[in-house]
């Protein structure tokens, strides 16, 4: 059975979704790809253990406490390629950035390939179903541009500022949609 709950955050309303007491979705209000694309019956339920854990994690995150994800039962659904990308995103330290190209190199190594398309990685990053916790906001363009974020560039900027990232060293946003 699928359940949903909401969380009021400093960057707007967040929708949480679970299946079998595992978190399968965390979407920002008006996020480009997910919350409106769910095609199954979802029952609102605010008091599930997975939601309580996630909300505590979010409380700590928005207080800039750098919470760890090791206690969260995450279960993002996606192809093996996307799973590799999301696994690498989880390794980006709090308050640090990486590029789509760097993620592509790491995915290529995981998949025993010589190269990997940065554009393909961008698609997987943009379709991350568990925003913030799987930190897709920490990925930038090769020139430091804040390109792409399904939740909106303004929210990406707020998340990075919360984490203490020095945005003055980066280029200005190039567009407000995910790659």
Automatic annotation (TrEMBL):
Ranges where the Methylguanine DNA methyltransferase ribonuclease-like domain occurs: 3-75
Top EC class of this enzyme: transferase
Domain Methylated-DNA-[protein]-cysteine S-methyltransferase DNA binding positions: 80-165
EC number(s) stated in the UniProt entry for this protein: 2.1.1.63
Keyword annotations of the record: Cytoplasm, DNA damage, DNA repair, Methyltransferase, Transferase
InterPro entries per UniProt: MethylDNA_cys_MeTrfase_AS, MethylDNA_cys_MeTrfase_DNA-bd, MethylDNA_cys_MeTrfase_DNAb, MethylG_MeTrfase_N, MGMT, MGMT_N_sf, WH-like_DNA-bd_sf
One Pfam short name: Methyltransf_1N
Domain of life: Bacteria
Catalytic activity: a 6-O-methyl-2'-deoxyguanosine in DNA + L-cysteinyl-[protein] = S-methyl-L-cysteinyl-[protein] + a 2'-deoxyguanosine in DNA; a 4-O-methyl-thymidine in DNA + L-cysteinyl-[protein] = a thymidine in DNA + S-methyl-L-cysteinyl-[protein]
Keyword Methyltransferase on entry: yes
PROSITE patterns registered for this protein in UniProt: MGMT
Localization per record: Cytoplasm
Active site residues of this protein: 136
CDD domains assigned to the protein according to its UniProt record, in alphabetical order: ATase
NCBIfam families: ogt
Note: This enzyme catalyzes only one turnover and therefore is not strictly catalytic. According to one definition, an enzyme is a biocatalyst that acts repeatedly and over many reaction cycles.
Family assignment from sequence similarity: Belongs to the MGMT family.
Function: Involved in the cellular defense against the biological effects of O6-methylguanine (O6-MeG) and O4-methylthymine (O4-MeT) in DNA. Repairs the methylated nucleobase in DNA by stoichiometrically transferring the methyl group to a cysteine residue in the enzyme. This is a suicide reaction: the enzyme is irreversibly inactivated.
Protein's name according to its UniProt entry: Methylated-DNA--protein-cysteine methyltransferase
Organism whose genome encodes this protein: Orbus sasakiae
């Amino acid at each position: 059975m699928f359940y949903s709950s909401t969380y009021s955050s400093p960057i707007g309303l967040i929708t949480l979704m679970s299946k079998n007491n595992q978190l399968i979705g965390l979407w920002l209000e008006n996020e480009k790809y997910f919350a409106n694309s769910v095609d199954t019956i979802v029952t609102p339920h605010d008091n599930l253990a997975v939601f309580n854990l996630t909300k505590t994690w979010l409380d700590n995150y928005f207080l800039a406490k750098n919470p760890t994800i090791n206690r969260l039962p995450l279960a993002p659904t996606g192809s093996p390629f996307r799973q590799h990308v999301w696994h690498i995103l989880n390794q980006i330290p709090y308050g640090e950035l990486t590029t789509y190209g760097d993620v592509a190199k790491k995915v290529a190594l995981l998949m025993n390939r010589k190269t990997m398309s940065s554009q393909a990685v961008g698609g997987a990053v943009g379709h991350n179903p568990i925003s913030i916790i799987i930190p897709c906001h920490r990925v930038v363009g090769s020139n430091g541009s804040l390109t792409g974020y399904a939740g909106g560039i303004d929210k990406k900027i707020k998340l990075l500022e919360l984490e203490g990232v020095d945005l003055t060293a980066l280029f200005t946003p190039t567009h407000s949609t995910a790659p």
